[in-house]
Amino acid sequence: MSRKLSLIVAPLLVLALLLSACVAPAAAPAAPAADQPAAASKGEIVFIPKSTSATFYLFLVKGAQDKAKELGYTVDYQGPATEADIAAQVDLVRNITKKKPAGILLAALDSQALIPPVEEAIKAGVPVAMVDSGIDGDAPVASIITDQYKGGFMAGEEMARLLDKKGLVANLGIQAGSVSAGRSTGFAEAIAQYPDMKVLETQWTDADAAKSLNIATDLITGNPEIAGFFAAAAPIATGIAQAAKAKGIDKKVKIITFDPSPEILPLFEDGTINAIIAQDPYQMGYQGVAAIDAFINGTKIENSKIELAPVMITPENYKSPEVEALLQTPDKFQK
Amino acid sequence: MNQVETSQPSTATRASAGIRGLFRNQGVSMLVILALMWVVLAFLSKYFFTVDNLFEITLQTAVVAIIAAGQTLVIISGGIDLSVGSVFACAAVVGGVVFTSTGNLLLSLLTTLGVGALFGLTNGLLITKVRVPPFIATLGMMGIARGLALIISSGIPIYGLDDSYKFIGQGKFFDVIPVPTVIVLVVYAIGYVVMNYTRFGRFVYSIGSNAEAARLSGINVPLVIIGIYTISGLLSGLASTIEAGRLATIQPAGGNGYELLAIGAVLIGGASTFGGEGSILATLIGALLVTTIRNGLNILGVNAFWQYVVNGVVIIGAVAIDQYRRRR
Question: The pTM is what?
């Protein structure tokens, strides 16, 4: 085709792809930040998750948006692509601070590295509330986080109970040194209490499902007597579950994971996954926005450091209303 | 290098020159190194050298190997395709949406392949018609495809893929040969024939050696390049169907870093970063090598942090030994 024509065609193709993305989600729900009321806004609160790849944060956004709608703010959602990119999150906080939002909700990838940008933001007049994973020190106006260690520990105790306190188990974590590594430590230390149980060295998966699948398969190959797996995040459990199924041992091994994400629930319902450690991301978002609003209005914040204890979901309590509220099903945030 | 060659005795017989020539082929020497690695690991762990585990290695290699096949063409032509990981995810997501709304497996697979090819085509057009350098064009496309994958799926993995889909990733022929392994063999067989026995393959090498000379000798360089990137995109889409089958879900965040793994496999296999050199079979060996190391270290229970070190050392070592042998 002629030079001029193709110069037009190429960018048009790209444009067509972009437009199709906007039209296609007739079948799929709209992106979280897209549907905010524009009228009478008290400002924008930006939520920065640990990564945009986990469905967990979509529920946190929903909680934040609900409270924000009550109070008159809008919520924006920006984050690094993977939980491994701490530097990107630091830069992001700095960049967001420059546009002076009403407040920032932050789920920190690292409890130390995020201290300077948070302090800078507060000095610049932008209140910061920590959600899900906090930073050391008292700089933020509030923090509503999960007790990561406790969650992992609870998983370890449940694993011991399911296995009659004996057997070999594997520990698949997200990223060494990150805030969520507490889950893996908690699990390992819980298992260490039982002399007839052994936990393999923690494997780090960056919460990638394919990586977890390969690692879990290899662990099973190298340790055929393996009896249980702990997944520190939902994508890890997806990988482990498929590895177990492929090896034909899914009914035999016990799998415990964090986060009742939508893709995990069917696996839990068919018995492949035996227990889920649930956090309350909705509450974190909700309380986080409330805390920022209180700070802006000069109201004293009652409980500025809240550590939410995770809830263990088992087949016994699955149907109860309290657990029902924690399940991360898509209908909970689709408009 | 010239000095060394002239000082060598000219009494080398045809036979030994032939064998040395065979060893000069990076693909063959990497194969030898791979075989050696398998032997060593077999001694270190009784779980390594089983039919089951060896097929497992081919299974775990499948996804990256297929992407790397496309990347081989790209690199031989002197270009690079950084978008493969993101196109992998986006193609899978669009195919997944089709699957969950129509339940038609064939339609969904064709969509995935089509979307992959479309991204590749766009890359090709940007590179040839708009003259954006491959690195930049595919780097930009990497971001675009990833963003679109997350937008279309709203960041939620698409789950509930039924058994027909899972067969692609988890099925076995004759109960022992994994389906992905067969797919890899077919892709590489086709790739081998194309690169070594068709004009298109020869054009790819020519363009990589000297694009201007290729153009002057009448090759339609833009058309070939567009074809190369389209193939790369198409193969990324194909690879994503395998991963979706293995995971029984489609992860919009998936494929992260696969571009580096694919490029690594191609370069370990011996392709030159400047283009003009490389062999598709050597890429397969390169991909198997990388997976073998990881699989072996996992089975041996090596500490996760040391795995990074050992991985790097072995890869450098394998290629270094090979380079040494080449220069003799």
Answer: 0.80
Whether A186 contacts A176, CB under 8 Å = no
Write the CB contacts of A10 (distance below 8 Å, at least 6 apart in sequence).
B122, B125, B126, B129, B130
Backbone angles phi and psi of A3, in degrees to 5: -55, -50
Beta strands in A192-265 (DSSP E): 197-199, 203-204, 228-231, 254-258
Cα separations (Å) of A41 from A38, A72, A174?
Answer: 7, 5, 38
Amino acid in the structure at residue B138: T
- Classify B12 as helix, strand or coil: coil
Give the DSSP letter of residue A309: P
Tens digit of each residue's pLDDT, chain A (335 residues): 455 555 556 566 766 666 665 554 444 444 444 444 444 578 999 999 998 877 788 889 999 999 999 999 999 999 887 777 888 899 999 999 999 999 999 999 888 999 999 999 999 999 999 999 889 888 899 999 888 999 999 999 999 999 999 999 999 999 888 888 999 999 999 999 999 999 999 999 988 899 999 999 999 999 999 999 999 999 999 999 999 998 999 999 999 999 998 889 999 999 999 999 999 999 999 999 999 999 999 888 877 888 888 999 999 999 898 888 888 887 776 54
**CB-based contact A201 B256, cutoff 8 Å:** no
CA distance B221 to B211: 7
Contact B232, B204 (CB under 8 A): no
SS3 percent helix, strand, coil of chain A, rounded to 5, is 45, 15, 40
Closest approach of B300 to chain A, Cα-based (Å): 7
Distance CA A173, CA A231 (A): 6
Does the beta-carbon distance from B119 to A209 stay under 8 Å? no
What is the distance between the alpha carbons of residues B48 and A145, in angstroms, rounded to a whole number?
A: 43
Contact A222 B249 (CB under 8 A): no
Altogether, the residues listed in chain A come to a count of 335
**Residue in B with minimal Cα distance to A236:** B247
Q: Which residues of B touch A184 (CB under 8 A)?
A: none
3-class DSSP string for A21-85 = HHHHHHCCCCCHHHCCCCCCCCCEEEEECCCCCCCHHHHHHHHHHHHHHHHCCEEEECCCCCCCC
CB pair distance less than 8 Å for A25 and B150: no
CA distances to A122, A207, A241, A244, A250 from A267, rounded to whole Å, are 43, 18, 8, 12, 10
Spatial contact of A47 and A64, defined as CB atoms under 8 Å apart: yes
How far is residue B177's CA from residue B183's CA, in Å, rounded to a whole number?
11
A97 vs A104: CA distance, rounded Å: 8
Residue in B47, B156, B303 nearest the CB of A55: B156
Question: What's the gap in Å between the CA of A148 and the closest CA on chain B?
Answer: 21
A246: Cβ contacts below 8 Å, ≥ 6 apart: A217, B170, B246
